[in-house]
Design a protein that fits this description.
This protein is an alpha+beta fold. It is built from nine helices and 21 strands. The strands form six sheets. It has a six-stranded mixed sheet, with helices on one face. Strands 16-17-18-15-19 form a five-stranded antiparallel sheet.
């Protein structure tokens, strides 16, 4: 039996790469039996998706669950009317040969492209994608046409269950149980497997383990407790006229309440004027619980001198765990305190950035594959 669904209904999402938006699944499947041969992954972001592909390539049966409406995690895109906004990660960089090889493949497949080279800091000169003399030497890569395209691509062929809100992780004899509720708010589900990989932001991962009374190795718990994140309030707005940002269509600000500005029409993401405004970590933390109309109005006001135009707020999104401010020194954690392995991955363990999430997911998969191979040989 392919599925490990024990109770309730879980949406089935087998995504195939497409240019259009990912929509929540509409088909439902129920099974009364539990397949304990599977590996469960919580989180369909970069870390979870890459780990799932590695585990499947090694012969493991994998199911990925995610509470969102689309895969990709913080590599995210939102459509409001006819405007399209990249409102999570704005670009990728590749500083390791491992991740560079992945990005090269995505570029060749038309999933990403080189956006620009050099520093994105406000006031830095515009540099063309082919300019190899840029100041910091790192090309910035963008999804084609949006950042969401990367999550869509990585989800291809995987068993991804969207709209699946995990509320607790529990240790059971020889495996793990996930308990939760579908996004409808009242349909419960239970999933069981012989190994689990948690890729949600570390504070959320720890909350799931605490809810299931799961105790980790003391050193692992100490390392994870020390990881904290800066939040980010993202305002999506329609400018009244063409923004006066650099030709590349984006600028990073080093000081003040704004961290980043993107003209999504200039990047090719949106067919109509659409500006993403990211609040800085400190400002976002201070105003995280303020009403949408307040933070929207204030961030647009702060952005106006840089945009050269006013803008109407269309949507406010709050990323509670946007950017890790510390790391563990390990790309991932494999905890074998219990009778079945539990792995933890994500950008919080590997220094942030999309590359950190990718390397963490790959490392966690490698650790699980090695451990499970040893268990198989031992039995």
């Amino acid at each position: 039996m392919r599925t490990g669904l024990a109770v309730g209904l879980v949406p089935v999402f087998r995504h195939h790469v497409a240019a259009g938006p990912v929509r929540p699944p509409v088909s439902l499947r129920t099974c009364s039996e539990v397949d304990m041969s599977q590996v469960l992954i919580v989180g369909a972001g970069i870390a979870g998706a890459l780990a799932a592909h590695e585990l499947e390539a090694a012969g493991h049966d994998v199911m990925v669950v995610d509470k969102g409406h689309a895969p990709g995690g913080r590599v995210a895109t939102r459509t409001v009317g006819d405007a399209v906004f990249d409102h999570g990660a704005q670009f990728l960089t590749a500083k390791s040969s491992t991740f560079q090889a992945l990005v090269d493949g995505w570029n060749a497949a038309g999933v990403t492209r080189t956006w620009f080279r050099g520093s994105p800091d406000l006031g830095s000169p515009d540099t063309a994608p082919e300019d190899t003399d840029a100041s910091d030497g790192h090309p910035r890569y963008h999804g084609e046409p949006t950042m969401r395209r990367i999550g869509e691509h990585l989800s291809a062929g995987l068993d991804v269950r969207l709209g699946t809100v995990v509320e607790a992780v529990e240790a059971i004899s020889g495996g793990w149980r996930l308990r939760g509720t579908l996004r409808d708010g009242f349909t419960p589900f239970t999933l069981e497997g012989h190994a689990v990989l948690l890729t949600a932001p570390v504070p959320q991962t720890l909350a799931l383990l605490d809810a299931g009374a799961v105790r980790l190795d003391a050193e692992h718990r100490r390392e994870l407790d020390e990881i904290v994140f800066d939040p980010c309030i993202s305002v999506l707005a329609r400018p009244h006229s063409t923004p006066t940002l650099p030709t590349r269509g984006a600028a990073r600000l080093q000081d003040g309440p704004i961290m980043w500005l993107t003209d999504n029409q200039a990047t090719g993401a949106s067919p109509t004027p659409a500006v993403t405004i990211h609040g800085a970590g400190g400002w976002s933390r201070e105003h995280f619980d303020d009403p949408d109309e307040v933070v929207g109005r204030e961030l647009v006001g702060f952005a106006r001198p840089h945009l050269g135009t006013d803008a109407d707020v269309l949507y406010v999104h709050r990323w509670r765990y946007a950017k890790p401010t510390a790391e563990t020194g390990e790309d991932s954690i494999l905890d074998t305190t219990h009778t079945a392995p539990l792995a933890i991955a994500g950008d919080g363990l590997a220094g942030g950035r999309v590359e950190g999430a990718a390397l963490s997911g790959l490392d966690a998969a490698a650790r699980l594959i090695e451990h499970l191979a040893g268990v198989t040989h031992a039995t």
